[in-house]
TrEMBL record:
Family recorded in the similarity comment: Belongs to the UPF0177 family.
Keywords for the protein's UniProt record, in alphabetical order: Hydrolase, Membrane, Protease, Transmembrane, Transmembrane helix
InterPro entries in UniProt: CAAX_protease, Rce1/LyrA-like_dom
CAAX prenyl protease 2/Lysostaphin resistance protein A-like domain ranges (all copies): 117-206
Biological process per Gene Ontology, one example term: CAAX-box protein maturation
The protein's name in its UniProt record: CAAX amino terminal protease family protein
Single GO molecular function: endopeptidase activity
Presence of the UniProt keyword Transport in the record: no
Annotated Pfam families: Rce1-like
Length: 218
């Protein structure tokens, strides 16, 4: 590694940290109730989302979502989606047998969102979070901070992704770090951030639909 590439890696790491901090700050307010607060949070989130997408395009991390029109793209995405379902099942089995099947902290947060503003329940986990998280943890960490295709970049991306979802036991670590590995695999296999974003969106849609059904039936 040359001195220039080392300093570039440091700069990209700092950029990833800054984006993470802004993202965490916005996420703190997802439970707002007043309409004006929801509108303000939406505007701030859209502005941040636009900035992140612009940066991703400028850095060559994100191209166009029309690449998702191919059968090959969806074969990879659906394969990864099914792999992730298996990972989720493994995490649930571990929680059931070792941790009394307590819900993960992140799913508790999703349940709270479902009880609040419907727009935020749709926008934040399905649109906002996948684009932001994939840009940071796949785009920046895997191909800018670390060398593209490196094992350390792959693992750092996966475990950092798991960490930000507040794992509180082995089962939740398996769930979220495992999902991070699946997403990292999709990105590494396709070299397209759009693929991992779409797979992330599909996962969050499934989680919210299942939570909504559970709340409705109960």
């Amino acid at each position: 590694m040359t001195l220039k590439s080392f300093f570039n890696s440091i700069l990209y790491f700092v950029l990833a940290l800054v984006l993470c901090q802004i993202y965490f700050w916005i996420e703190k307010y997802v439970y707002v109730r007043e309409i004006w607060q929801v509108i303000l949070l939406t505007l701030i989130s859209l502005l941040f989302l636009a900035i992140v997408i612009f940066l991703a395009r400028q850095l060559g991390l994100l191209e166009e979502f029309k690449t998702l029109k191919t059968r090959k793209a969806w074969q990879l995405i659906i394969s990864a989606f099914l792999m992730n379902l298996f990972v989720q099942l493994c995490g649930s089995v571990i929680r059931a047998n070792l941790e009394g099947m307590k819900p993960t902290n992140d799913n508790e947060g999703l349940v709270n969102i479902m009880h609040m503003n419907p727009w935020l329940a749709f926008f934040m986990p399905i649109i906002f979070a996948p684009i932001i998280e994939e840009t940071i943890f796949r785009g920046l960490l895997m191909t800018r901070v670390f060398k593209q295709g490196s094992l350390i970049g792959f693992l750092t991306s996966a475990f950092a992704f798991g960490y930000i979802h507040h794992p509180d036991g082995i089962g939740s670590w398996v769930t979220y770090a495992g999902m991070g590995m699946v997403l990292a695999w999709v990105y590494q296999r396709s070299n397209r951030l759009e693929y991992s974003i779409m797979m992330h969106m599909l996962n969050n849609i499934l989680v919210i639909v299942l939570i909504a059904l559970t709340l409705y039936l109960s």
